Amino acid sequence: MGLLRYVTMAVLFGTAIQSQSLLAQGGGAAPASLSDVTSSTASEEKPPIIPTSAFASRSFFQAAKLSPDGAQMAAMANLKDGKFLVVLDAASRQLKAKYPVSKETELEWYRWAGNSKLVLSLSSQGKFQGEDALFTRLALIDQNTNWIGILGPKTGVIDGDNVIHVAKDGSYLLVSTQKTIYDYPSVFRYELEQDGKVTVVQSPKDGVWDWSADNAGVVRLGTGWYRNRMRVFYRPDASSKLELVGKIKEGDEEGRFWNVAQIVSGSDKGYVLRENDAGRVGLHLFDYSTREVVETIYENPDWDLDSATIRDGKPIAAFYTDDRERVVWFDEAREKQYAALSRALKGYDLWVTSRARDNSRMIVWAGGEADPGVLYMFEPAAGRLDQLLELRPTVNFQHLARPKPISYSARDGTLIHGYLTLPRGREAANLPLIILPHGGPYGVRDSLRYNDEVQLLANRGYAVLQPNFRGSDGYGEEFTKLGTGAIGRGMQDDLDDAMDWAVTEGIADPSRVCLVGGSYGGYAALWGIIRNPERYRCAASWAGVTDWDMMLKYDRQFFSRKGGKKWRARVEGDEEFDLDSVSPYRLAETLKRPVLLAHGTEDSNVPFRQFRKFKKATNKAAIQPTELVIEDEGHSFSKPENEQKWYDALVTFLSEHNPPD
Fold it and tell me: How far apart are CA 315 and CA 654, in angstroms?
């Protein structure tokens, strides 16, 4: 249960903050040495066991967002009677409306369109040419007329929710729609009203998979790979025709420039995220007519930029992750605002997750790697900071363990970064170890942020190690490239080397090491126990890939034709390489160690047949997997009770096969 305590008093814009809120454990700096990581755990008392239900619990409301005028707040809600999108009065917090989401549909995301309309992305399972497929579409809630309906096609398409522009007044939006995996996308304009007019504003062009609009809603740029060239179509304004301005070979310098952050209306210039000569992603002002960099806005010498915020044609902020998520401000007022909030919420990591256009109200998240966090409503003019909700209302943050950054050298000399969480109240020596690889595996990484599984396992007495193996995001172009063709090979070596590091440092007992993971991490757990049974005592997989060829065929629906080939090439590395040789199902009959095999039947990312294929392949194995099948569950947990089933099964499995004591 969260502990109430007054927030540190701080002056913001001449007014002292007045509110009662949660005090969270703070950020903390990276350790200077390994002794800093291990020194504080043994002298503490063991914390009480936190129930699995607490880690699975969520606040009723998630993804809270303010309307542009700040008068209303919407949120996704999982209630006893189903899933809803709810709308509250931002001042009183009183419920104004709740809109149900059908059981057959997932609410992927939502956003405000003006002050009285909400656009929703809905997904559902289906079949395309006999294969499982995920179909998406858009829906509209118009509060002015109380109309709720589907935008565009009445049936889902492969990619029907790719919104590239929303009018500030909520009158229309532009969506790039791809009917099937074989169709190039068109751009439609949807009038946001009942039976609103649908207009094609951009027809498909061969090779164009990505359309970009400027901040006034004019489609200005189309890019995509076609016949081994990236084709670039551009026009300077709405009255001009799109012209083919470039055919760029893969590897050419120009190919770095087309990750568009925003094109500025009335100008040939726009902002792009691109790699520099050192392989670091930075923010640049780019001239599309001359295809040249005009100005470098910001580059970090050590870390890739994750994203940038552009507002009304001007850069507001750039974001990157070292061990924590960081921000570089270009807007002085917002920088001062964050500084004041940091003084008030001393010890927190914090982010403004939503704000009114005039900054009259903001939703602020505050938390950390050992604190799941709190949402506040901040009203600068009144100096008020009111607690809205706790994200894990029944987890006592005072009993959680604090992850610390570590690094080690892989067998080929590559420096691998990661995070080690030690159980409190135990000596940091000869501990049972859980290696917890992240999902992805590409474009993803772990960082110093709260993780339910990490805290669950540390609370039970396990050391938990999260390696950012080669190919993980954020460490530069060369490190990313090391992940090509490394699935089941170099990436897996990095996990084995993480174990060796922990054993050499005296932290882990080499006879008590297990692999646990979800998605790609689930694959890595299964493959590790099959590839190196002498190393690992057990493995637990949630929604893990077991057959790479089958997985890549399924993935084609999410890529363009060129993109699908590039994705396969990235996984295979060498086109002569046989993916069956690193697919767990192929060697499942050799299974010698205990495995927890878990999956949701409605998984649209890693289909349930991946589970079935592995299970069938273990029929002749010496050890049969422990199974957990959750009906009507997807890739991620949509219901707390389903998440708790996984945690309960995991704790029971580990207690039997790798007990912490």
Answer: 49
